[in-house]
Amino acid sequence: MNETGESVTEQPNINVLATTMFEKTADYLQEELAATVDDYRLLEEMNRQAITKYSDMKQIAANVSKALKELNEKYRNLKPYLEQIDEVEESVFKLEQAAYKLDAYSKRLEAKFKQLEKR
Fold first, then answer.
1. What are the helix (H) ranges across the chain?
2. Quick one: pLDDT at residue 10?
3. Which InterPro entries match (predicted)?
4. What mean pLDDT is reported for the chain?
């Protein structure tokens, strides 16, 4: 027995248990750090993927913008012709209305002529 009342055989057992506890604690902390490093690597990869995705989306948006500018330019070039088409359409409509009026007038005139012919 030693001065604290413990047997001499218990002392080495406590030393072994303490050493085992410190080793297990060290292993636990190593694994926690490894998990944290893995989390940061995953976040880093996710950020890389997001950067790539946003870069692709930026390129698509630039292409759409370019195509829209080209379409607007084509529309500006066609606008005078479209206005002429609208004017022709309006003229055709007026001409059609005049033709209907002329047709109605000629039918009335024909009816009067037939009426006068009968007399």
1. 10-118
2. 66
3. BLOC1_su2 (IPR019269)
4. 92
In the block, which residue shows the tokens 């890389």? 48
Residue matched to tokens 């902390």:
29
How far, in Å, CA of 110 to CA of 115, rounded? 8
Predicted TM-score (pTM) of the model is 0.54
Tokens of 47: 């950020």
Check the CA dihedral 107-111-116-118 and report its sign. Answer: positive
Integer angstrom CA distances of residue 107 from 47, 93, 95: 83, 21, 18
The Cβ-side half-sphere exposure at 81, using a 13 Å CA radius, reads 5
Work out whether the CA dihedral 54, 59, 62, 64 comes out positive or negative.
negative
**Beta-carbon count within 10 A of 104 CB:** 10
